[in-house]
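fold-stage: in
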Amino acid sequence: MREISVGRRFAAAISFLTIFPTAREGVWKEELGSSMAFFPLVGLLLGALLWSCAYTFGAAFTPQVNALFLLSVLTIVTRGLHLDGLADTFDGLGGGRDKGEILKIMRDSHIGTFGVIGLVLTLMAKYLLIGQLIEGESSLSLLLFPTLGRWSMVYLTHFFPYVRGRGTGAVFATYLRPRDFWWATGIALLISILTHGLAGVGTMALVWIFTYALGHYFVRRIGGITGDVMGTAGELTEVVSLATLVALLRGL
């Protein structure tokens, strides 16, 4: 595999995960795959954007309105990329009876009833939990949950088999190297410690347990993971992170 500079890999991660076209045209597959090392760092940048918006508009709006605004910003900046994967996954699991049928439904670009239900419940959970964080003035939590959501995708890709032979997800599964995973893990752990100390480490541990269980569930259902499953993991672990941080905020 050719050596790729840190700057190009980081730019590829930003371009893939956000609406900002920082990478050059014609990104190499190796460049895109190894960019997963910086997924948690991109999550931190997204969290910093949310924090700055919450700080700027906190005095003007109620926590509920501010939470809706932050959720809208996060969805727009990330192009709803992982939400699309979540909807496809819910449709496949809800409508498919076996591996082949589930994968066929997940490939369909049309959204079905189960996909709508998954989207509504996930977005509603995020909205309510972000509102509680803002109300409790736990602004540092806005930095952590996007970070851990993107780290979970790296973990899932590294440790579980990919079941499709092509697609963007296959590029990540093929070209993600062990050292990229450890870089991503180190970055996520450092951010967890700097923002929440031992509580941040505990939150990351819960995300790890949840992602591990999620990966094994999909191995049983469809034999492994897909790009849609990666997106689903990112969205659901954001909810898990938010719920954990809210519980810590309330002293539970």
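fold-stage: in (second)
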Amino acid sequence: MNLVKSFVRNDEGQDLLEYALLVALIALVAIAAVGLAGKSVNTIFSSIASALSTAS
């Protein structure tokens, strides 16, 4: 019975899991933001390149 109580009281593994999930969530948000920003930047540079090619 004491072994079961020690597992219930031991929250060290739970803290580690929470931090791991938090890091994974932050990484997913960062990857999504970079992906969306990359598409927008690509569109901007494409329009600049086409404007420069028509100007020359």
